[in-house]
Fold these 2 entries.
Entry 1:
Amino acid sequence: MASRTVAALLITALVVSLAPATTAQLLQNIRQCLSSIQSVNGCTGEIANALFNPQGSTIGSSCCAAIDGLSTRCLLLVFPGRNTRSIIKSICAQGGGPSPAPGRNLVLYTM
């Protein structure tokens, strides 16, 4: 019984000690994935507008191209919710469209 307790404590300690590194790596992966979207002027704002108001929003063609260029792994990291990916992909599949007028863009802050 004591050996099981010690083994459980060692496994718990290992998991806890690895968690910060795993979290840091995950954040680094998300930053790398976001870089192509952030390189398109206004793209993060267009995405935020589309998520808050899917029926009344458009996403510019260059922003859609950046989204389409994301790997499957990056899509899952940047847009973790299935509905989120569906909304963005649906708007882009409709041909994107012109970017929203200046001043209507929301600023999406990243880490």
Note: The mean pLDDT is 75.
Entry 2:
Amino acid sequence: MAGGWDEFVKKRCPSSPSPTANARRTAFARSAPLPGVSSRTVHGVRVRGVDVGPETRCSHYGTDRDVVALRFGCCEAYYPCFECHETVADHDSEPWPRERFDEPAVLCGVCGAELTVGEYRDCGHSCPDCDAAFNPGCAAHEDRYFES
């Protein structure tokens, strides 16, 4: 990609306040591969994000308890976190819709269990299938994942 680095730098350090120029740079940045962007199949389910590990950890959240991927309503794709969606997706995020809370929306990266929103909320921060510990801090971002 000729000029790829220059365009990337312009996106990170815009020199022009022009909305058209900024839109072009943003479109280029979204289409160009970003360092660490990956897609991985975890227990047969595709998970997109930044440096996605085999148990769904990412570059944003990498503790031993960060082992879930969440499904977004806008694209029905699984991402380890909202920051991965913001970085990788070419659209704005929308949380999983309330009327679909009875469908799988959370993936355990340890065993591959897919949980509904209710099952996830009721599980006591551990997978009901394999007992892997989930990060209780995810509750602070719940509005980004599940419609209220």
Note: The longest strand covers residues 37-42.
